[in-house]
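Researcher: Let's walk through a ligand-bound prediction step by step. First, I give you the protein sequence. Second, the SMILES string for zinc ion. Third, you return the three-dimensional complex as structure tokens. Ready?
Model: Ready.
Researcher: Here are steps one and two:
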Amino acid sequence: MPELPEVETVVRDLRPLLVGRVLLDVSNGAKRLRYPWKPTWNRRIRGLSVEAIGRRAKFIIVGLTQDASLLIHLGMTGQLTCVPDDEIVADHLHLRFRLSGGFELRYRDIRRFGGVEFHTGQASLEKRFESVALGPEPWLMDGDNWVASLMASSRAIKSLLIDQSTISGLGNIYADEALHRAGIHPARQAKSLTRPESTALLQAAGCVMEEAIAGRGTTLRDYVGGSGLGGTHQHSLAVYGREGEPCSRCGLIIIRIMIAGRSSHFCPGCQSQDIGKRGGNRVLP
Ligand SMILES: [Zn+2]
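Model: Step three, the predicted complex:
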């Protein structure tokens, strides 16, 4: 599933390819997406130009003229690419936006948990974001608010980290990586973390995602950036997907457990169950 670093990579790839192009037409497939494209939007996008592209948490926002925008969520397996219009058409392609200059913006999604919406006016976008309750990204999270959210929660810290309403951007991969870096066991109750542990975890979450962005994100199966090129960060993961391999820091074998129905990878040497034993106020290299 694309997490924040993958979505950021898509945005950065698309920016030089997309900004300034005019939307000429759109064709959409018959299969329904989680965020379905309405046929009535076809006519409304014609002639609008792309002014900017950015994101909010894991939503991609393509800013158009006339205060309009496309709002895209990649769901589990979404791919948003800008390619020459004669490029071969892959299966599971649901939307093709024909652009000026002989290009197309394509939305492909095998599992169809994502999609593209059309919005006009800032208020419509804001309303949409309110409906999904997004917490701040790690870099923008207020330290005191973060500590307070942890202290108020009896859930496993891993579950809290992937809850987008508390902190946005982390999914299964980067939550595991952040917990390993901060030296915190994923099953610990959030409220059991000391203040230095909570602070170290927030810092680690920001660091692992910055490094992943620098590596163009993690490609495990379907993810590609906006130009169609995959990520490289899968080679730098410390624990995620490395069950049975030795920890690069302490040499103990990485194990996988289930927490709230999701698999969690951690090192029993670096990530003790004991409060304050590891992690503390340091972010390990
Ligand atoms: Zn270790």
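Researcher: And what stands out?
Model: Strands lie at 23-28, 50-56, 59-64, 68-73, 78-84, 93-99, 103-109, 115-120, 255-259, 262-266. The first helix runs from residue 4 to 18.
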